[in-house]
Amino acid sequence: MRILRSIRFLLLLFVMLAVPAASFAQFGLAITIAPPPLVAYSQPICPQEGYLWTPGYWAYGPEGYFWVPGTWVEPPTVGFLWTPGYWGWGSDGYAWNEGYWGPTVGFYGGVNYGYGYGGNGYEGGYWRNNQFSYNRAVNNVDRGNFHNTYEKSASSSRAGSGVSYNGGTGGTRARETAAQQNLSRGRHDPATAAQTGHQQAASQNHELLNSVNHGRPSVAATSRPGEFTGNGVVAPRGNAAAANEAATNRANNATDKRSVENNAAATRTNDNRAAANEASAARANTAAEKRSVESNGATTRASENKAANEAAATRTNDNRAAANEAAATRANNNRAAANEAASTRANNAAEKRSVENNAAATRANENRAAANEAATTRSNNAAEKRSQPAPSHVNSNATRSETQPTRTNNNSQQSRQSSPREQSAPRAAPQQHESAPKQQSAPRAQPSHQNESSPEKKH
Question: How far apart are CA 346 and CA 336, in angstroms?
Fold first, then answer.
């Protein structure tokens, strides 16, 4: 037996080296022996809010299939859900398809893992406002401490002894849809470090080998990853382990007629269920698409109406702005014209006043100049007359002038009042007397002589 195991392990290593790394990451190794049926167990209580259930499955190691208990796991990102891995039949054997985390549950072979994973999608809960809401009909949670819960009946409330692979003899007949293919190629994260450590610990537990427990492992599920002892450990349910062992023998015994018939019946049932699920999903997708088209049409119409209203409001605002601008322009033009007219009138009045003032100033200057010139002429005439030699009859004139003092004084006074500038004439008298010394005998008659000799001063 040990020799056979060593040979099988060497063959496994050879296959691992021969398979490219890319295909190994997606499909794993091809095994010719079908994996055992799933283990029936009760779900342990969830240890903490935010943890999600990851169902148990059969993995393959150097010593054959071993059971990886189901456990509660904290997701790597808020909002992500777990898509379980599954065994699928290929052209020459069974290959393991790794599970992954993503925003939506993808394809997992149509395998009914139980507790929300009924073969298509997930009925165990959903994310809302960064918190996970648990379906109490599927999940074992503490209702006193878990507040984000609800209850809705599901087809996969418990894990049973069902087929654990897709395709091949006795496997499920589910096929991956186009949407699920796109999801598997889209953004997703691999299993967390806690999950890989959980599987590694299970591979080192001898009691979890199928060759040892015959489909009835000592630990079927745990509350936390890697914990295979304590209160959080759950064993298989009752006689379900024996039924699993019998089912394993029937699946591996190709000559067992009943196993073939059961597998055929299971295949027909699964095919019918898959077809019904696919038809239901197609109807749901059609209804959703119809609602989406109607919603898009309503949204488009609302957007068009909104755009029309905005265009009308824009035109109204433009018209109002243009009218206000035209009115402001007219008002400004009117004010400018009025100001310009007023300024023109003021300038004209100022120019008129300036012309009048200039004319008045010119006339005043001309009058003053004429008066000054006349006064200068009279003064010059008087000076010239005084500078002439005195006639021989001066004394007789002086005698006559003494007989008429009143007239002479009056004429002298009028002459002084009418010609105030002529007061400068007496200053020239000494010069005249110096040239004509004969007139010194009659100094008192000098004013009268001057007045009589200058009759032009009366004007």
Answer: 15
**pLDDT class for 273, splitting at 50, 70, 90?**
confident
Alpha carbons 165 and 173: distance in angstroms, whole number:
10
- Among all chains, which residue has been given the structure tokens 């648990």? 134
Q: Where are the domains of the chain?
A: 2-252
Instruction: Please give the pLDDT value at position 335.
Output: 87
pLDDT in tens, 406-436: 443 444 444 444 444 444 444 444 444 444 4
The total number of residues written for the chain in this structure:
459
As a whole number, mean pLDDT of residues 393-415 equals 43
pLDDT band at 258 (very low <50, low <70, confident <90, very high): low
Query: Which residues does 24 contact at the CB level (< 8 Å), separation at least 6?
Result: 16
Cα–Cα distance, 361 to 154 (Å, whole number): 120
Other C-beta atoms closer than 10 Å to the C-beta of 414 total 13
Cα–Cα–Cα angle for 186, 30, 172, rounded to 5 degrees: 70
Helices 446-453 and 405-418 cross at an angle (nearest 10°) of 60
Q: Which residue has the higher pLDDT, 35 or 421?
A: 35
Long-range residue pairs from 87-91, CB within 8 A, at least 24 positions apart, any chain: 87/34, 87/35, 87/58, 87/164, 87/165, 87/166, 87/171, 88/27, 88/165, 88/166, 88/167, 88/171, 89/165, 89/166, 89/167, 89/168, 89/171, 90/27, 90/30, 90/167
β 70-73/94-97 pair status? unpaired
pLDDT of residue 432: 41
Q: In whole angstroms, give the CA distance from residue 60 to residue 98.
A: 12
What percent of the residues of the chain are helix, what percent strand, and what percent coil, each to the nearest 5?
Answer: 55, 10, 35
pTM of the model: 0.50
Return the sign of the alpha-carbon dihedral for residues 232, 238, 240, 243: positive
